[in-house]
Amino acid sequence: MSNNLLAGKVGIISGALDEKSIAWKVALKAHSEGARFVLTNAPLAMRMGEIKKLSEQCEAPIVPADATSVEELENLFTQAQEHLGGKLDFVLHSIGMSTNIRKGKHYGDLNYEWFQKSIDVSALSFHKMMHVAEKQDAMNEWGSIVALSYIAAQRVFPDYTDMSQAKAVLESIARNYGYRLGRLKKIRVNTISQSPTKTTAGTGVGGFDAFFDYADKMSPLGNAPAEACADYCVALFSDLTRYVTMQNLLHDGGFSSVGISEDIVEALTKANS
């Protein structure tokens, strides 16, 4: 059911790789709510994924861009405004990558060049996006910029290694740039700390199934699915959340507020009996 929450709004959605991607779900939901947008991803990710299928479904042009390159982001924002006929109302940053995780490197044995790449791709790219948007004056007043995060920015999840630092930097950038853009043009900037989600990227983290099940048992509502995260993103893009900014918004079924759950107590009791 559509409520036309985004009727007349235009934007950029990054990071849609395949149907499991949260960004993919956001694009479908935004389209159903009346938005028009440009899709973008790194050229390598586009070759690996199915973004052309999504483009056809949403009637959305694709503008490839390496989000670590200011020059390519400048082209992205310029092309997006040309395609969409004016300034933007929303931007989704759904970008994250850790070669250390992909290569199975433990936290005490990280490759530091890869670590720096993780920070650049997963966090500094968010700053670069907003830097370009500001310099081009590419956003309308009361626009909304959202990035996807994870609770490992605040808590230890051993197999999440250097992505924990990347997400912490991402959330800090959201607060600092959110202050700047809010004062300049009433633009709000938020991050969503999503439940562990069975995306292509998420399931590449070691031990993912274990902490997915753990989070599900800890959360009174269970893990929030990707489709629900898409709903939340759309709500943040809409005019219904005009005064929400500089927040890390927990979308985790209550996981972050629970010390221990009955399900976990029961599981531990059975294991120790």
UniProtKB/TrEMBL annotation:
Pfam family, one: adh_short_C2
UniProt-recorded Gene Ontology molecular function terms: enoyl-[acyl-carrier-protein] reductase (NADH) activity
Enzymatic class: oxidoreductase
InterPro entries, per database record: Enoyl-ACP_Rdtase_NADH, NAD(P)-bd_dom_sf, SDR_fam
Superkingdom of the source species: Bacteria
Active site: Y150 (proton acceptor), Y160 (proton acceptor)
Gene3D superfamilies to which the protein is assigned, alphabetical: NAD(P)-binding Rossmann-like Domain
Keyword tags: Fatty acid biosynthesis, Fatty acid metabolism, Lipid biosynthesis, Lipid metabolism, NAD, Oxidoreductase
Reaction(s) the record says it catalyses: a 2,3-saturated acyl-[ACP] + NAD(+) = a (2E)-enoyl-[ACP] + NADH + H(+)
Record keyword Oxidoreductase present: yes
Biological process annotations from GO: fatty acid biosynthetic process
Pathway(s) it belongs to: Lipid metabolism; fatty acid biosynthesis
Residues at which NAD(+) binds: G15, S21, I22, I95, K167
EC numbers, comma separated: 1.3.1.9
Protein family per UniProt: Belongs to the short-chain dehydrogenases/reductases (SDR) family. FabI subfamily.
UniProt-recorded name of the protein: Enoyl-[acyl-carrier-protein] reductase [NADH]
Taxonomy of the source species: Bacteria, Pseudomonadati, Bacteroidota, Cytophagia, Cytophagales
